[in-house]
Amino acid sequence: MRKLILYIATSLDGYIARADGRVDWLESIPNPDQLDYGYADFLASVDTTLMGNSTYQTILSFGGDFPYADKLNFVFSRQTSLTDTDYVRFVHEDPATFVKSLKNQPGKDIWLVGGGQLNTILLNAGLIDQFIITLAPVSLGAGIPLFGPGAVETQFKFIKSESFETGFVQVVYETVPPPTHS
């Protein structure tokens, strides 16, 4: 079965973006050696991306070519009027049902790009297998949280961490399956 991996950066106070969706704060932290924090290796390990429509619109606002054109990309939206593009298929069905089916199909791992609402739905459904969270040395004070209201309490198993001279710290966790009661 394919793994669903949430690979994302957060501020130290747990925000993945400003309230308006901007992630400019990630670029404001000096990175003189142009470290990619394992991004290229991670990107090579996945063949599918999942994101909410707000996250998709933010990516489009960066300009340039769509960055995941070589992947199968699904964007979840309640807007049924959206039309598929060359690189994106819009999904209007229940995200948890869709992802359960997707994980059982052949392929590489699946990247949950975000945002907070989709992260919460898939966390609550127990569908995220691994979390690769890169903590940025900045506090935003407000914005879009990693998980939205209603996120269920979930236990994680620590896998590893790595710190970088830029002040970023990357942690990897896996979901601990809930105990089975017999």
TrEMBL record:
Protein's name in the database: Bifunctional deaminase-reductase domain protein
Superkingdom of this protein's organism: Bacteria
Example GO molecular function: 5-amino-6-(5-phosphoribosylamino)uracil reductase activity
Domain Bacterial bifunctional deaminase-reductase C-terminal: 2-169
GO biological process: riboflavin biosynthetic process
Pfam families: RibD_C
